[in-house]
Design brief:
Largest sheet of chain B: 5 strands, parallel
Radius of gyration of chain A: 52 Å
Number of strands of chain A: 11
Shape of chain A: rod-shaped
Largest sheet of chain A: 5 strands, mixed
Number of helices of chain A: 13
Shape of chain B: globular
Distance between the termini of chain A: 38 Å
Mean pLDDT of chain A: 80
Order of helices and strands of chain A: HHHHEHHEEEHHHEHHEEHEEHEE
Strand order of the largest sheet of chain B: 2-1-3-4-5
Oligomer: heterodimer
Low-confidence stretches of chain A: 1-18, 125-132, 548-571
Mean pLDDT of chain B: 86
Largest interface: A-B, 22 and 22 residues
């Protein structure tokens, strides 16, 4: 909610008056209503049942409304029509009586006229058994002077009088005054010409009875309509419930299936469409379960196979290894070709062994059998061990290997063996491609993550290659000699090791400017990495120039360039 | 006198090759090709050390290891093709002192054998005492005897060496790496699980309650040290 009503303060400040201004009230009601509205809206979006019921109720309501209006107007018309016919008939029959009253009177005889009018009006209204509610009579003269002498009577609408004055019978709906006040009524007027002059005779019928009949009809239609709408809505709710309930059960079962409980099934009864859904769902679940079990079995077999191959291969390899070592140790006594052969045999056995070891490691990952063995250790120590272990290789490549790390320990919960393996792989890879230029290892850290980057100024990477370097057996340049005879699996294994830590392993490189491999790991087991404390792309990107030697001991990010990661490894 | 090595391995080529290497390095090897006959051969040969392949026909290497350990403290080195945690730890827990992963180099193997055969043979009737004062552990180094509460505790040579190494410098904390070097003879960093497993085995013999050790204490994040005398 945004801020709440600013008016709430003053309104609450003087509650004693008890007359908060209306707008505060509305604001408050609005704020109180909002959650309710939101709940309704979410129910609308989430519940098919609510939607079906609402739509059904609305449509039914509309139809019922139309039918109701039609019915009410039809009945109303009918009733009024009958009343009108009756009224006209009544007026006609009264005409003769009225004319008779005026018989023998002359226009000047005002007294006589008044008496006659009294007679006429009293005659009907006084009739026993005929209540005043039935009708009232009014007699008016066309001559206003005569009218002034008549007793006061109920007013007649002017428009009606004008029509009647023109000499025709006219009917008009107009309010009629009764003992209960003014009620809707029907006025029938007709001219009567007598010896005493032209008069108008009006019949005023109050429509009270008709009105109450119509009211009853309206109420009945309204109640029936509402009942019908509610009934239809309830039926819609019930019917959709039939459909929705199995769907919900299916959804819940599917969720549990997805959660890993493969034995979940839906209870199916009957043979209708819903039952068909359940049966199909269960068939799908069974098929899935079989597939998954089959895959699990395959994975286990694969793991077993790998383990067996491992053992079966390694036993003869051990014999070969020992034999080769014996030959190698005694090569000084051999003819030159034999001595060289012994050397080659020995060296290639090393490669063969590391390849086998890497293959087994990869297959362990593929089988999902790799597990993390974390311990709280100092990352700097791991880096130093990895650098130390790579010194021999660095000397062989005649490359300067610099560990630009601080002296302060950086503790983190990692699998030291795997992290050291990653670093040795990265350093070995950098030395391989350094072309005599230095290789730098940096460590950066923040609260949650620790990053280690390995930088070389050698061949670098072509555009697009940063994502490929972690592929198995990928070679950047097939024409390049294999100096170290790396297995081609080192970076792939490193990536798996990093993933096992929920960490990142990324590469950046530019042709001729070298490359950077950056490992970022969470400092607590189970943590996640959202950013790295070291930049992946070095700034500024310059090729290494021999005299420029970076100061040692500098840990942490270099330069202020944000870590634009052009080669984010898909994770 | 040449140290006798009993090689328990079903692969005849490997056994023969091991024989060549061992003989040329001054050992006297004896061979048994399957697990079922390993214990009988062990009793007959009375070797100074056993080289045991983990995967054997007959009885598994783990079972053979347990059987030998049940009647003797003779050092056992496993030959294993598996580096998976479970297998290695299982082997160590069943009583093996050390392990070598195939394929290994001959020098590596003989170095491991010699390290296990090397004894603390320093002169002097040394007696060490560690553990809580009310129930101390007394170690008679030359006699190779450990006594606690009047009961003699039977330790394997490796467990004995481990205990002595800790007891000689009671206040010093030993990292696993240092123990690996002093007791197992590893020069480079090796599998620290060796230390963990054998400390557990040692505790199960010398501690009153191995869950709450008083003799061999864990220093979290660093390593182990002997309990105060």
């Amino acid at each position: 909610m945004t801020g709440g009503p600013p008016a709430a303060g003053p309104a609450e400040a003087r509650p004693a008056r008890g007359t908060a201004l209306p707008q505060y009230f509305w604001l408050r009601s609005w704020h109180a209503l909002q959650p309710l509205l939101r709940r309704l809206l979410s129910a609308w979006r989430r519940s098919l049942q609510a939607r079906v019921a609402t739509v059904t109720a609305l449509v039914t309501g509309l139809v019922v409304l139309l039918i109701g209006l039609f019915l009410v107007s039809q009945i109303g018309n009918g009733v009024l029509h009958a009343k009108r016919d009756a009224a006209i008939a009544q007026a006609f029959s009264g005409r003769q009586v009225a004319t008779d009253q005026f018989a023998g009177l002359t226009p000047g005889d005002l007294n006589g006229i008044r008496q006659a009018v009294d007679q006429i009006t009293a005659d009907t209204s006084g009739t026993p058994g005929v209540s005043e509610e039935l009708y009232t009579k009014v007699v008016l003269s066309t001559d206003s002077a005569v009218n002034a002498g008549l007793p006061p009577q109920a007013p007649i609408p002017r428009s009606l009088r004008r029509t009647v004055e023109r000499g025709t019978l006219a009917v008009e709906y107009a309010p009629v005054r009764t003992a209960n006040g003014e009620v809707p009524g029907l006025v029938v007027g007709q001219p009567i010409s007598t010896g005493a002059g032209a008069f108008e005779l009006y019949y005023l019928f109050p429509l009270t009875a008709e009105e109450s009949t119509l009211d009853l009809v309206r109420r009945t239609v309204l109640v029936a309509g509402l009942a019908l709408v509610l009934l239809v809505a309830a039926i819609a709710v019930l019917v959709t419930r039939w459909v929705v309930l199995p769907v919900r059960v299916a959804a819940q079962t599917a969720e549990r299936l997805a959660g890993g409980d493969l034995s979940q099934r839906i209870a199916v009864s009957g043979e209708d469409d819903i039952a068909l859904l359940g049966t199909s769902f269960n068939d799908m679940a069974t098929s899935l379960q079989q597939q998954i079990l089959r895959l699990e079995k395959l994975s286990r077999l694969q793991q077993r196979f790998t383990s067996d191959v491992s053992h079966e291969l390694r036993t003869p390899l051990t014999t070969i290894r020992m034999a080769a070592e014996l030959l190698y140790a005694g090569r000084s006594g051999f003819a030159p070709e034999l001595a060289r052969s012994a050397e080659l045999l020995n060296n290639e056995l090393d490669r063969f062994e590391s390849l086998l070891a890497d293959l087994l490691e990869i297959s362990r990952y593929d089988a999902g059998a790799a597990s993390l063995d974390t311990e709280r250790v100092d990352v700097i120590g791991i880096v130093e061990r990895a650098v130390q272990a790579s010194e021999v290789l660095a000397r062989r490549h005649q490359v300067q290997l610099l560990a630009l790390v601080g002296s302060e320990p950086v503790p983190a919960e990692v699998d030291a063996r795997r992290v050291e393996r990653i670093l040795r792989n990265l350093i070995g890879n950098a030395l391989d491609h350094a072309e005599g230029k230095p290789v730098e290892v940096r460590v950066g850290h923040d609260e949650d993550t620790v990053a280690i980057s390995v930088r070389d100024y050698g061949v670098g990477l072509r555009p697009g290659e940063a994502g490929l370097v972690f592929n198995r057996f990928w070679r950047g340049d097939p024409s390049r000699s294999r100096l170290t005879g790396g297995t081609g699996l080192g970076l792939a294994i490193s990536l798996e090791d990093a993933r096992l830590h929920d960490g990142w392993l990324q590469a950046w490189g530019e042709r001729g400017k070298g490359s950077v491999f950056r490992l970022t790991l969470p400092r607590t087991a189970g943590g996640t990495v959202t950013s790295s404390p070291l930049p992946l792309m070095p700034a500024p990107v310059v090729p290494w120039v021999p005299p420029a030697r970076p100061a040692t001991g500098a840990a942490g990010p270099q330069g202020g360039r944000p870590p634009a990661d052009p080669a984010e490894v898909p994770r | 006198m040449k140290p006798r090595v009993l090689v328990v391995d079903d692969d005849s080529s490997l056994a023969e090759m091991l024989g060549i290497v061992l003989r040329s390095d001054g050992f006297e090897p004896a061979f048994v090709p399957d697990g079922a006959r390993a214990l009988a051969a062990f009793r007959e040969v009375k070797p100074d050390i056993v080289l045991l392949d983990l995967m054997l026909p007959g009885a598994s290497g783990i079972d053979v290891c347990r059987a030998i350990r049940a009647e003797s403290g003779t050092p056992i080195i496993m030959l294993t093709a598996k580096t998976d945690t479970v297998d290695v730890v299982l082997g160590l827990e069943s009583g093996a002192d050390d392990y070598v992963v195939k394929p290994f180099k001959p020098k590596e193997l003989t170095a491991r054998l010699r390290a296990r055969l090397r004894r603390y043979d320093e002169a002097g009737g040394e007696t060490l005492t560690i553990g809580p004062p009310e129930s101390p552990v007394t170690i008679d180094v030359p006699a190779h005897q450990v006594v606690r509460d009047g009961n003699q505790i039977s330790l394997t040579p490796l467990e004995f060496d481990l205990l002595v190494a800790l007891a000689r410098k009671p206040r010093q904390v030993f990292t696993r790496e240092v123990l690996l070097e002093q007791v197992w003879g590893y020069r480079h960093a090796a599998d620290t699980r060796l230390v963990n497993v054998h400390v557990q085995r040692l505790r199960s013999k010398v501690e009153r309650d191995p869950e709450r050790p008083e003799v061999v204490l864990t220093v979290r994040g660093v390593g182990y040290k002997a309990g105060p005398p």
